[in-house]
Amino acid sequence: MDVLITDKQVIKYLVEKYKLEINDHISLSKILFAVSKQERKMKKKVSQHDVIWEHILLNRGFDSTKDIQYITADDIKNSKDTWAGKKSQFEPRILCKQDSDKRRPAIFKKLGIYILSVKNGTYALVKENIYVILKKGNCPTTKIVQKHNSSILSLGNSETTMLDKLRYNGIIEEIIDEKILYGPILGGRHRCHFSTLLGKNEINISGSQFETDAVYETEKSICIIEAKSINSDSFNIRQLYYPFRYIYDHVGAKKKIFCLFIYKDKSNVIHIHKFIWNNPEIMLDIKCIGYWRYI
Q1: Which range, 96-105, 224-233, 238-247, has the best average confidence (pLDDT)?
Q2: Would you list the domain boundaries of the chain?
Q3: So what's the pLDDT on residue 45?
Q4: Please, which residues have CB within 8 angstroms of residue 88's CB and are 6 or more apart in sequence?
Q5: Exposure check for the chain: N or C terminus, fewer CB within 10 A?
Q6: Cβ neighbours, 10 Å, residue 63
Q7: What global pTM score does this model have?
């Protein structure tokens, strides 16, 4: 199949990286084969994740002049038909899971695009930066977390174990500044439906799935928690905004809703960032209102 490839940014990126000689009109199969061939030669130096996404965007006919484009799980899976390598690498859930800015493929960074789940099996490629930087500002003196849980099954190093220790030591209630009445609640997987502004564009989220690590309810507020047992420098806004909107659309202004992003670094220091939304209907209108560290 011969196609007209119009996006100069994509062509320039591929030409520079793979040293390809191509024209405006070119066989799609030939250019994809050339990329795959070059990748096989460079496989010790090139991330497979990056090359797969280059292949998908080229196969999909990506146009970087558009603010928003959509790609489906089927688009991703069908791209393996013109791929010369292993077919098993075209798993949408793995390729589209880009929870931190470091997880973005090189071609995404080059083209200035970000991927956001908008529907079960459908993703938006957008120009707005959807990652929140976790800044380590001034905070109270690091406190020692003592284990006040007598359970003999308080084992492991998972996110859940970390949250349990924070809860049993009163840290969560200290940050919430209220006694927890219910929680953790809202476990398992849920689907959300809402419209939001992302930059100047309206985005419709229709059945996109999310999970929470914990949700706690007090007399006056609701606290949503996303926890990581690995060092983090940023997070995808979707991780907190989707559960926030799900709860906000049910609760409204009856209770104050805020979110905690918690992670543990290589030195076993636990970092806790507290966020609110100024305008709940604008996805990126997020504000950090607190930062704590614990050992």
Answers
A1: 238-247
A2: 2-127, 159-294
A3: 58
A4: none
A5: N
A6: 14
A7: 0.84
Helix or strand holding residue 241 (H, E):
helix 238-251
Is the omega angle on the peptide bond into residue 184 within 30 degrees of 0, that is, cis? Answer: yes
pLDDT tens-digit readout, 64-111: 788 899 999 999 999 888 887 777 789 999 999 999 999 999 889 988
Say how many residues make up the chain: 295
CB neighbours of 192 closer than 8 A, spacing ≥ 6? 205, 207, 208, 210, 242, 243, 245, 246, 249
Measured distance CA(33)–CA(18) in Å, rounded: 12
Name which of 276, 250, 278, 279 is nearest 261 in CA terms.
Answer: 276
CA distances from 179 to 77, 172, 183, 294 (A): 48, 9, 11, 20
- The interaxial angle of helices 8-18 and 48-60, nearest 10 deg, is 140
Strands 122-126 and 131-133 turn out to be unpaired
